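Case study 2.
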Amino acid sequence: MNLYSKKQQWKIALLIFALLLVGVSLFVSNTIVAKVGERERERARQWGDAVKKKIELVRLTNRTFTQLRDQEREKMALWIDATKEVSQATPLNQIPNYDFPLKIINGNKDIPVILLDNKKQVSGYINLDFDTTTLRTQHTKISAKELVSVFEDSLLFLAETWQEKNPSFTVEVYEGLFMTYCYSDSKGITRLEAERDSLIHAFNVDLINNEGLVPVILIDNKTTEIIGTNIDEYTITKFNVDEYIAQLEVQNKPIIIDFKNGNSNTLYFDDSPELKQLHYFPYIQFLVIGLFVIIGYLIFSTFRKAEQNKVWAGMAKETAHQLGTPLSSLMAWVQLLESKGVDSMVTVEMQKDVDRLEKVTDRFSKIGSGTKLEDTDISATVRNVMNYLRPRISDKVDVTITTNDELSALHNASLIEWVVENIVKNAVDAMEGEGQLNVNVQGTPEWVHINIKDNGKGISSGQMKTIFEPGFSTKKRGWGLGLSLVKRIVKEYHKGNVFVLESQQNSGTTFRISLPSNIL
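Prediction:
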């Protein structure tokens, strides 16, 4: 029968289909991952362009601020000259014209100035954002004199701070009298700087808090300093930054941001966590599907096995029942023939066949119901079945039996005889009725082994794992149930094992039946 070979073909076809399905799924998944990765690289390039524009804007703004400060310094110098001219004494016979210098002096509405004398005392100030009234809200319990002192101290501190940022002007108003003019940026420049710093801060905050942006590091190629990054400071430190950058460089090709003025930055970036997870998604998907398939297979296999057991048990019970009626009739006929004085040789042989049929019926009845195992000598069981089979085997088969006494094993003698009989008959068929058959029983502390060896045509490697499957047979009229029944009896009823110990083409085969031993 080709039942099992067709089953194998179906298995191979389904396996090929599953592999094709896996291949197509992996191709689609990898295509999606590649597209997502390209989109992330495009986002990184866009971010690099944004950084480039931001840096260019900052540099342009800084140049603008420098120009504005230079202009304000010129205005301050002009304002000081006008102040100096107004403050200087003129001869009595000349009428001074202060219209132009006063116009310059009064034109300063936004540059804050603090005037200090030789003793570093405050002589005057203009365009300040606070006065004693402002300080009164902070110092409610001090006197007016103390409040003025606090105000002057604040002006002195402020003047010193301004001098660190903008160089002061010192002029000689009168001989021996020098005045120092300390000034700060105008309100307009201060406001513009605040807005610039706010934009830069907002950009950096967006960079750090933007979870959708891929991990990036922007490096200045001249100073090798980190200009910007959205990677956690605990992940990247000054000790591992080079190693981390090397890893990113392997992961994705860096993007060079060239400012066309000798300055350039390099943008290193990694795949986003989502993209990394997406790489493993197909394998996780297949793992989950595989688990469901395995669980489903185990469940259906259990149901199928239970159903097969019911079928086996039902067939065995029905077979025993069907054999029971003709067997009783045959026993009666044998007794009738004996009473009529028929040749004793005929009745004796007929009685042997009746006994044999009775044993077969007993075997089927035991398969169809609970099997009772007894702790008896396994060697005696093997000798009994071989003694029965010897006269029924071709004379051209040389049978050798080697057993050891007192090899005790928990077994059912009738069923084990059936197992040995099935394997022996298959061995005789493999030798085509001519050859050597060796049956050997040996024991170990854990097992009792029954080895049945023939010198027939052997079993091919492709058939080695399928010979115990239902439907497998090398005979044209075979049903392929003999060795399947053998395996069921040994494994399920006796908790043992049966397998091909060795086999070679045209040299023979050795079957081994292993049963748990009771030897201590």
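Residues 74-188 form one domain.
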